[in-house]
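4.2 Preliminary Data

To establish feasibility before requesting continued support, the project team ran the inverse folding procedure on a target of 96 residues. The structure was first converted into the token representation described in Section 3, and no sequence information of any kind was made available to the design step. The complete token record follows.
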């Protein structure tokens, strides 16, 4: 499983450890990934996703998983999240 957020696409970044003597060694900056259960209002069920904590805050700010996925670009989302986005869009369209 890749170290990549399923909603925002945030992944591993690389950089340098810089000592006091300015010696540089390569290092990796890992995203703060957690497994979160998010409630989908349209589907009426919870969905478990591996997302970074920044994405969790963004989902809360936007107004829930359904609102976040409706505004999200497909190129940032994982395959599971894209499938979930299509399913939610179909449910909303059927309800309207």
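Position-by-position output of the design step:
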């Amino acid at each position: 499983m890749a170290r990549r957020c399923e909603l925002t696409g945030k992944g591993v970044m690389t950089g340098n450890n810089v000592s006091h003597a300015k010696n540089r060694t390569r290092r990796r900056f890992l995203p703060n990934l957690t497994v979160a259960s998010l409630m989908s209002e349209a589907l009426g069920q919870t969905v478990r996703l591996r997302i970074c904590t920044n994405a969790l805050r963004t989902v809360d700010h936007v107004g829930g998983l359904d609102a976040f996925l409706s505004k999200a670009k497909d190129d940032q989302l994982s395959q599971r999240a894209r499938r979930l986005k299509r399913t939610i869009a179909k449910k909303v369209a059927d309800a309207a």
